[in-house]
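Hi all, long-time lurker, first post. I run a small reading group and we've been trying to get comfortable going from sequence to structure in the token notation. Rather than ask abstract questions, I figured I'd post a concrete chain and ask someone more experienced to write out its structure so we can walk through it together at our next meeting. Sequence below, copied exactly:
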Amino acid sequence: MERIRITFEKTGAMRYTSHLDLQKVWIRALLRAKLPLAYTQGFHPTPKVAYAWPLPLGWGTEGELMDIWLDDPEGKEADAETFIQNVNNSMPAGLRILGIEKLPYSDPALTIVIQSADYRIVFPDFHDQVDLMDKMSNLMSQETIERERRGKIYDMKPLIENWSCGNTEEGEVFMNVRMAARDSAMGRPDELASALGFDPFAVNIVRMKYILEKSETRNQK
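-- Answer (accepted) --
Happy to help. Here is the structure in token form:
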């Protein structure tokens, strides 16, 4: 059995596809590409696929991850370029594989090795980069940044690992921010936008990539 890690993007209208519907789209595309998918055991076998952290509706991604398992005992699966082309030909517009990587079958689950995620927050109709930097500097100068999530108060500050600001080609201001992305510590860029005084539903958020724990670090634990 082969384990393949797929890096993909979700853009355009696909940003408004829920995580559950996205899973269905992936399964259909993988089946159309005639890949030898491995299946779970039990009364209702399903293709063995594992996803990273779900994206909220409306967020885009340029570096999302998922793992699939292939039932290919003789190792005859296509080369990477052919694999990507075959699957992408079965994809709807806005969903595209960017790269694949073979992994040892016993590697830890994605949600275990993901440590952080890089996001880009674009602030439509806001053009004052200096003002945004001042807002963020003032926010980070606070001892704590208390926010509420699901009725509980938490401190956002430890979840913000680094940040920077820039301007899009259209002149709108954006912020690149790296936030913790672990099960016990999940940073939310929309909550950061709200803490800065912006409507979290009015900003555009893209998850750029994940930061994974290195295998050498895991082996030392």
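A couple of things your group might point at:
The mean pLDDT is 91.
The longest strand covers residues 60-70.
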